[in-house]
Amino acid sequence: MAVMNAAKKTSPSLTPDDSVPEADQRRQRADGAEARQRLLHAALRLFAEKGFSKTSTRDIAQTAGVNVASIKYYFGDKDGLYRAAFAESMGPECNSWSEGHDVHALSLRDALMVFYKEFLAPLKQSETTQLGILLHFREVLEPTGMWQEEIDRQIKPSHAALVQLLLKHMQVEQEDDEIHRLAFSIAGLAMQVYINDDILRAIRPSLIARDDELERWTTQLTGYAEAMVLAAAAQRRKLASQSEQQQK
């Protein structure tokens, strides 16, 4: 017993630096990052194709080529993995399309151009982003709670920024249902490029075949939206004038 105690006292403590060479530590970190990324990509694809409820952690791990226990290690559980796939697939978060742009100093057309460029930008990005878009639409149809968070965190601020832009350029002091209806309609012009992806590819694939085609979408949608705003502003002026005439 005394010998064992002495051995315990004299044995040096093994820190991670002592037990594992630095090169091996770097390799382990790289392997860990790669395993996490494989899990994320496999989960993103399966969640987008099958939905949350129909995708098992076993299927994800098998597709990623890792042990199912890795999900718990990197993400906690299936919910945590879904949350990470949903949030990280679309790239850096932005609370509003107007962030980083002084849109209120721009003309109406230039501000709308910024709006559509930001809106359509994910369509130019990687397969991961494309799967992220699909997952976002699946979340709308099969909500898990993430969609409400997305509305609060990104969609509401973006809509509010667009409403403020319309108020400025239409010279309207107070927002109303007509202004909000117009804002949703402007966003809807771009949404159909996302939603009708399969239809566009079947009927006119050249419309979304290359990045420069998406630039043409941006330019045309900007023109359509500008015309909508000008028409709505003219209609408001006409109604206001008629109301004044009736009061005389």
Structural features, described:
Residues 1-32 are annotated as: Disordered. Residues 33-93 form the HTH tetR-type domain. Residues 23-32 have a biased composition (Basic and acidic residues). This is Transcriptional regulator. The chain folds into two domains: 19-88, Orthogonal Bundle (Arc Repressor Mutant, subunit A), CATH 1.10.10.60; 103-247, Tetracycline Repressor, domain 2. Helix 5 crosses helix 6 and helix 9 packs across helix 10. The protein is 74% helix and 0% strand. Mean pLDDT is 84; it is low at 1-17 and 23-30. The protein contains twelve helices and no strands. It has helices spanning 2-10, 16-19, 22-50, 57-64, 69-75, 78-88, 108-120, 127-141, 146-170, 177-195, 197-203, 211-247. It has 248 residues and is mostly helical.
Count of the domains = 2
Quaternary organization? single chain
Low-confidence stretches: 1-17, 23-30
CATH superfamily of the largest domain: Tetracycline Repressor, domain 2
Shape, per Cα inertia axes: elongated
**Per CATH, what is the topology of the largest domain?**
Tetracycline Repressor, domain 2
CATH architectural arrangement of the largest domain? Orthogonal Bundle
Average pLDDT reading: 84
- How large, in whole angstroms, is the Cα Rg? 26 Å
Largest sheet: none
* Portion in helices: over 70%
Structural class: mainly alpha
Strand content: under 5%
Q: How many angstroms does the end-to-end distance come to?
A: 110 Å
Number of strands: 0
Order of helices and strands: HHHHHHHHHHHH
CATH class type of the largest domain = Mainly Alpha
Number of helices: 12
